[in-house]
Design a protein that fits this description.
Blueprint: H1 6-19, H2 24-27, H3 44-51, H4 93-96, H5 109-133, H6 168-173
Length: about 170
């Protein structure tokens, strides 16, 4: 019964849906309503934050200050890091330390745009001046009567002699 009729296959597919009946006990209304109240409790993480703000084990976290902006000529215990002995280190020391990328404070963004505009204007102006005073070609282009057909090996060109390779017999006779 591999071929089967289409109606048999359709009945087989639809059989579970035809047998499905609504469950009457789910449609009934409940007799008792329970009231739920929401009670706010402190989680373990919130309690830890209350006990130890910053969650760093009570380590004093100084205000963030880049070492780049500290006085380089000050009397520091560590001259390179500009830090005194026993001074607490900020938790973001890798970002605030001397070896982090320096903040570029030489120019404001406005002055940087002005300088970039002046540079672009100067280069374009120089290109314009050069294009005005650049000399023409010193010579006239060479022309050919029939174009370059003959010079590049066309129909009227002289053919180069073709040397034939000697055959094996000719090599033996030599």
């Amino acid at each position: 019964m591999l071929g089967g009729r289409k109606s048999d296959k359709l009945q087989m597919i639809l059989r579970p849906f035809a047998a499905a009946r609504p469950l009457s006990h789910l449609l009934r209304t409940p007799k008792y309503f329970t009231s739920l109240t929401q009670i706010r409790t402190i989680t373990q993480a919130e309690q830890a934050e209350i006990d130890d703000p910053g969650m760093n084990g009570g380590y004093p976290n100084p205000p963030p200050e880049k070492r780049q902006f500290r006085d380089p000529y000050g009397d520091w215990w560590d001259k390179q890091e500009r830090r005194n002995f026993g001074e607490p280190v900020h938790e973001d020391h890798d970002i605030l330390g001397v070896f982090s990328p320096h903040e570029y404070t030489h120019f404001t963004p406005q002055k940087g745009f002005v300088l970039m505009g002046c540079f672009i204007g100067t280069v374009l102006g120089l290109c314009g001046v050069v294009s005005l005073y650049y000399p023409d070609r010193p010579a006239v282009e060479r022309t050919f009567e029939d174009g370059l057909d003959r010079e590049l090996g066309g129909k009227g060109a002289l053919l180069a002699p073709i040397h034939e390779e000697p055959t094996v017999e000719e090599n033996r006779n030599r």
